[in-house]
Design the sequence.
C-alpha cells in the first residue's frame, strides 16, 4: 500500500478534507469491483468526450447533403456507417447527436432534480397542510404515464428540443420529491436539526444547509437510473416528430427518418437505435453500481 | 372493538378513499386545464379568424366563457368533463369522446395480448431466476430486464418488422387487418379477434392474428422484463421464509414448495404488478401503434398532436390518466381483498 492510499484509508483522518477524500476513495474501491458498472462509467465518459470533441471526431459535416451519395451501405466510400436519405454521413451525425443526447439528460436533471428536492424537503420538514398539498400535487403528476404527459405539454408548448426538455423535466420531478420527502422525514427529528433550530436558524437555512445535503446521495442514484428513461423519452418524442426538429442530428429523429427505408436500407434506422441502446445501457449499469455504493439499503 | 365501531371505521376509510380518488381526478382535470391554457394559440382567433370585427370577437369570447375569471372557467371545464363533453376534434370533426370510444378497443386488444404474453413468460422466468439464483436462468432474467430498460420500444418494433415481416415473411405488415379483410365482420365489441370469432369468419380471424402478433410481442417484451424482475424478487423473499425451511425439513418436494406454497403467497403481490404493467403498456402503446399503424388511442393521440388538435389531445390524455388511476386503485382494492393482513 502506497503512502497516499494509507492516508486516504486512515481510520483517524486529521482533517475534514482527508475524511471526505477518504470516503470518496472507499466508495471508488467498492464501485471498482463491479465490472459492469465500470463499463457503464467508461461509456458515459466516452459519450462526454465524443460530445466535447465532436468537430474533431466527425469525419464529415453532419449537415452537408450530397444527393449523389444517398443511402450508401456502411463502409462504402469512407462512410463508416453509411449515409442517410440526403446523403449525410451517419457516423458524423451520430457523433453530433451525442451532444444533443447529453444536453437533454443534463438539462432535464438540472431542472427536475432541484424541483423534486425543494418540494420533497419542504413537504417532509414542514409537514401538516403543506405536506398534504404538495404530495397531492405530486400524486397527480404521477397519475399520468410520463410519456403521455410529456406529449400533452409538448402539444401545448409547440414541438422543438427546448420544449421537449421542459416537458420531460416537468414529468420527471415527482419521484425525486417522494424520495427527498422520505429522507427528510427520517432526519427531521434528529438532534442536530433541533440544535440548529434552537440556535435560531431559519427554515430556509435548515432545509438548505442541514437537510438537502443528506438527500443528495439517494437523489443522485435515482437521477442516474432515470437517465436511460429520459434518453428513451426524448428519443420517443424525436421519433414522433415532437422533439428535435430536422435537420438536427437527434438519434430518435434519425430512426424516424430511416424508418421509411428500413426494408431495403436497414442500416439507416438500425444504427442510431444501437447508439441509443449503448448509451442507455451504460447509464443503467452506472446507476446500479452507484446504488450499491451510495445507497446499500435498496440494493 | 364492537361491531358498530368497526363498521364506522370501515365507512370512514371508504370515505377517505373516495375523497382521495375525487381529489386525484380533480387534479388530472387541473393539469389538463392548465396545459390547455398554456397553448400560445388564441382560442377566439381560432374560431373567428383574424379578419373578424371587434364586436364579433368579443361576442365569441363571451360565448366561450373566456371573459370569466379563471376559477370560473375551470369550474365550467370540470362540469363539461364530468358529463363527458370533451369538445369536438378538429381532425375527425366528431365528438372526442366518440372518437376515443371507437379507437380504444384496438389499444385494449394490443395491451391485453401483450399482458398475457408478459404473464405467461414473465412469471415462470422470474421463478426460475429466483430458484437458480446467480446461475444462468437468473442472469437471463437480469439481461432481459436490463435490455427492457435500455431499448427504445419503437426501434424494437421497426427491427421486428424488418426481420419477421421484411426478411422472413412470417407475419403481416403494419395495420390491423389486410385490405381484403376490412369491413367483413360487423363491429360488436370493436376487438377484431373477438368479432371475427363471433361471426365465424376464421380467415379474418387468422389475418387479424398475423397482424397483432408482432406489435403484441414487442409490447409484451417490456411486460416480460418488468414482471420477471418483480416475480424474481418476490420469490426470493418467500424462499428465505421459515415455512419453506419447515416444508423442506418434512420432505415436501421442491416443486410443490415453489408452485404451491410460495406461488400462492406471492400471487397477491403479482396481481398488483400485473395491473401496473398493464397501465405501463398504455404508454408503450403510443409509440408501438405509431410504428405499426395500429388504429388505437396512441395513434389517435399522436395524430391529434401533430395537427395541434388540443381537444383531442387533452381528452385522450385525460382518459389515459383516468385509466391509469383506475388500474392503480383496482390493484390496491384487489390487494386488500385477497390479503387478509391488509384488511
Sequence:
Amino acid at each position: 500500500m502506497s503512502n497516499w492510499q494509507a492516508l486516504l484509508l486512515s481510520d483517524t483522518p486529521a482533517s475534514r478534507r482527508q475524511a471526505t477524500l477518504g470516503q470518496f476513495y472507499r466508495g471508488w474501491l467498492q464501485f471498482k469491483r463491479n465490472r459492469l458498472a465500470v463499463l457503464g462509467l467508461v461509456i458515459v465518459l466516452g459519450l462526454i468526450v465524443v460530445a466535447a470533441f465532436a468537430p474533431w471526431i466527425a469525419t464529415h459535416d453532419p449537415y452537408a447533403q450530397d444527393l449523389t451519395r444517398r443511402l450508401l451501405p456502411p463502409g462504402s466510400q469512407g462512410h463508416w456507417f453509411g449515409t442517410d436519405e440526403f446523403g449525410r454521413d451517419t457516423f458524423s451525425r451520430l457523433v453530433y447527436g451525442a451532444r444533443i443526447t447529453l444536453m437533454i439528460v443534463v438539462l432535464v436533471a438540472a431542472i427536475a432534480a432541484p424541483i423534486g428536492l425543494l418540494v420533497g424537503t419542504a413537504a417532509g420538514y414542514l409537514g401538516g397542510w403543506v405536506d398534504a398539498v404538495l404530495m397531492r400535487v405530486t400524486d397527480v403528476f404521477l397519475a399520468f404515464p410520463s410519456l403521455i404527459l410529456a406529449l400533452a405539454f409538448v402539444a401545448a408548448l409547440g414541438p422543438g428540443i427546448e420544449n421537449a426538455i421542459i416537458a420531460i423535466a416537468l414529468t420527471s420531478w415527482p419521484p425525486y420529491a417522494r424520495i427527498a420527502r422520505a429522507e427528510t422525514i427520517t432526519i427531521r427529528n434528529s438532534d442536530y436539526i433541533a440544535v440548529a433550530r434552537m440556535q435560531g436558524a431559519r427554515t430556509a437555512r435548515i432545509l438548505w444547509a442541514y437537510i438537502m445535503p443528506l438527500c443528495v446521495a439517494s437523489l443522485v442514484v435515482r437521477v442516474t437510473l432515470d437517465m436511460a428513461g429520459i434518453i428513451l423519452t426524448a428519443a420517443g418524442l424525436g421519433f414522433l416528430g415532437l422533439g428535435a426538429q430536422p435537420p438536427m442530428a437527434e438519434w430518435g429523429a434519425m430512426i424516424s427518418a430511416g424508418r421509411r427505408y428500413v426494408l431495403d436500407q436497414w442500416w439507416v434506422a438500425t444504427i442510431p437505435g444501437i447508439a441509443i441502446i449503448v448509451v442507455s445501457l451504460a447509464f443503467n449499469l452506472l446507476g446500479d453500481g452507484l446504488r450499491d455504493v451510495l445507497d446499500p439499503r435498496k440494493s | 372493538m364492537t361491531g358498530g365501531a368497526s363498521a364506522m371505521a370501515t365507512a370512514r376509510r371508504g370515505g377517505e378513499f373516495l375523497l382521495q380518488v375525487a381529489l386525484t381526478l380533480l387534479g388530472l382535470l387541473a393539469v389538463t386545464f392548465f396545459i390547455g391554457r398554456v397553448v400560445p394559440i388564441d382560442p377566439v382567433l381560432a374560431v373567428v379568424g383574424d379578419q373578424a370585427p371587434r364586436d364579433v370577437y368579443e361576442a365569441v369570447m363571451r360565448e366561450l366563457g373566456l371573459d370569466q375569471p379563471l376559477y370560473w372557467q375551470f369550474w365550467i371545464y370540470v362540469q363539461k368533463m364530468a358529463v363527458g363533453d370533451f369538445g369536438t376534434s378538429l381532425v375527425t370533426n366528431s365528438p372526442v369522446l366518440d372518437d376515443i370510444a371507437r379507437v380504444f378497443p384496438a389499444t385494449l386488444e394490443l395491451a391485453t395480448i401483450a399482458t398475457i404474453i408478459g404473464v405467461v413468460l414473465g412469471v415462470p422466468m422470474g421463478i426460475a431466476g429466483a430458484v437458480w439464483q446467480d446461475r444462468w436462468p437468473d442472469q437471463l432474467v437480469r439481461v432481459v430486464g436490463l435490455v427492457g430498460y435500455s431499448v427504445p420500444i419503437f426501434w424494437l418494433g421497426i427491427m421486428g418488422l424488418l426481420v419477421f415481416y421484411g426478411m422472413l415473411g412470417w407475419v403481416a405488415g403494419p395495420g390491423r387487418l389486410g385490405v381484403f379483410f376490412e369491413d367483413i365482420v360487423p363491429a360488436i365489441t370493436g376487438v377484431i379477434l373477438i368479432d371475427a370469432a363471433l361471426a365465424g369468419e376464421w380467415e379474418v380471424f387468422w389475418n387479424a392474428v398475423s397482424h397483432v402478433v408482432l406489435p403484441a410481442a414487442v409490447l409484451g417484451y417490456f411486460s416480460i422484463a418488468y414482471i420477471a424482475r418483480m416475480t424474481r424478487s418476490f420469490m426470493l423473499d418467500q424462499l428465505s421464509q421459515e415455512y419453506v425451511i419447515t416444508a423442506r425439513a418434512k420432505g415436501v418436494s421442491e416443486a410443490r414448495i415453489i408452485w404451491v406454497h410460495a406461488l400462492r403467497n406471492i400471487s397477491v403481490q403479482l396481481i398488483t404488478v400485473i395491473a401496473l404493467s398493464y397501465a405501463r403498456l398504455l404508454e408503450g402503446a403510443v409509440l408501438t401503434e405509431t410504428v405499426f399503424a395500429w388504429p388505437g388511442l396512441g395513434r389517435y393521440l399522436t395524430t391529434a398532436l401533430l395537427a395541434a388538435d388540443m381537444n383531442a389531445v387533452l381528452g385522450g390524455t385525460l382518459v389515459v390518466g383516468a385509466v391509469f388511476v383506475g388500474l392503480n386503485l383496482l390493484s390496491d382494492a384487489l390487494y386488500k381483498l385477497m390479503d387478509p393482513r391488509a384488511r
